[in-house]
Design brief:
With 347 residues, the chain is an all-beta fold. It is built from no helices and 32 strands.
Length: 347
């Protein structure tokens, strides 16, 4: 199954198309991912596990068992920090050992979820207590320092340089929010980053942009950290809840009851595909019609709205425009031949 991808083009400017495969299935409510080289760690209802992504059909191995709805995880050297959600604690384990043992970092929490370490602080969200906090790992008996309270079911955390991003799962004024925190200043400064997502359960920061797993929209979006511009890069997913990536591959937790990890390989050979730089959409913004200029052959097309919903499909006619009169005003993506994604605005 192919899906349109339009990112991770850090050096070459080609269109990248993904090939998707189920890497692992039959999981028990998988929650969060952390990628370390060829080792992909993930949490589930009872444990921290890992798979080797360099081999085909990898078998999950238990790293730490006996957890209670394990959630966020973050690796610092050999120490893996894990939010033990329903146990109200954060643990760590030395994953370089053959039989790692869970060690309590802090207990007495409510429902710790997302985790990120920056310098000597471990930042975390507490889902049901609606706050973002941190603990000082240099303190052998740390206490919680509250960064922000009154949140709306804060979930995942990710970090880019000195900016910490966290998502909230309960909408405010019908929109879900992603906020950012500048943790280079004291006290940390919080601002709204995006209010244009649909249940942003999973976040992953890459160079200059944020990848967002939007569960209720069944999409992955890419948001520019500097401009806030959002693009849909994967659609028609199955309730995605987390995402990580390296330079060539994406990994997603999705499926009924979060029961599988999917692998999405990126293809960066522009000779295999159409050249998007030669294709133009006119007029843009569009009102009643949209001309596709630069095509020499008949190609299939699909129009997807900003929530990832397919609103129109067909075959491009080289002489006739695409009618857009019935589209509501807003941002859309024209996907040509499951390959090229071009954005346009309906006015």
């Amino acid at each position: 199954m192919k899906r349109v991808i339009s990112f991770l083009l850090l050096v070459v400017s080609t269109i990248s198309v993904s090939q998707t495969e189920v890497l692992v299935s039959g999981l028990n409510n998988a929650s969060r991912l952390f990628l370390d080289g060829t080792t992909l760690y993930f949490t589930d209802a009872t444990s921290l596990r890992k798979i080797d992504i360099s081999i085909s059909s990898p078998t999950p191995e238990i790293v730490v068992d006996g957890l209670n709805n394990a959630a966020g995880l973050f690796l610092d050297g050999n120490d893996m920090y894990v939010s033990d959600f329903s146990a109200g604690r954060i643990i760590k384990a030395d994953v370089s050992l053959s039989n790692p043992v869970a060690e309590d970092v802090i207990t007495g929490l409510d429902t710790p979820n997302g985790l990120v370490k920056f310098e000597n602080f471990l930042y975390f969200t507490d889902n049901n207590s609606d706050f973002l906090g941190r603990i000082d790992l240099n303190n052998p008996d740390p206490s919680v320092e509250i960064i922000s309270v009154g949140l709306n079911r804060p979930l995942d955390l990710t970090i880019y340089e000195n900016l910490l991003f966290f998502s909230q799962s309960i909408p405010v004024s019908s929109t879900h929010r992603i906020s950012q925190v500048d943790i280079s200043v004291d006290p940390p400064f919080i601002t709204e980053f995006s209010n244009d997502t649909d249940r942003p359960i999973g976040l992953s920061a890459r160079t200059d942009f944020l990848l967002v797993a939007e569960r209720d929209a069944n999409i992955v979006s890419k948001i520019d950290i500097t401009t806030g511009f959002k693009e849909i890069i994967l659609s028609n997913l199955n309730s995605p809840v987390d995402i990580v990536s390296n330079e060539t591959t994406l990994f997603l937790i999705e499926g009924e009851n979060q029961n599988m990890i999917t692998k999405i390989d990126l293809i960066l050979d522009k000779n295999d595909f159409l050249n998007s730089s030669e294709i133009k959409l006119l007029p843009n913004p569009a009102k009643d019609f949209l001309h596709v200029v630069g095509l020499n052959t008949l190609e299939s097309f699909e129009i997807i709205d900003n929530k990832g919903v397919s609103v129109k499909k067909g075959i491009l006619n080289l002489l006739e425009p695409i009618p857009t009169t019935n589209l509501a005003q807003g941002l859309y993506y024209l996907i040509i031949n499951n390959n090229i994604s071009l954005r346009f605005i309906k006015e």
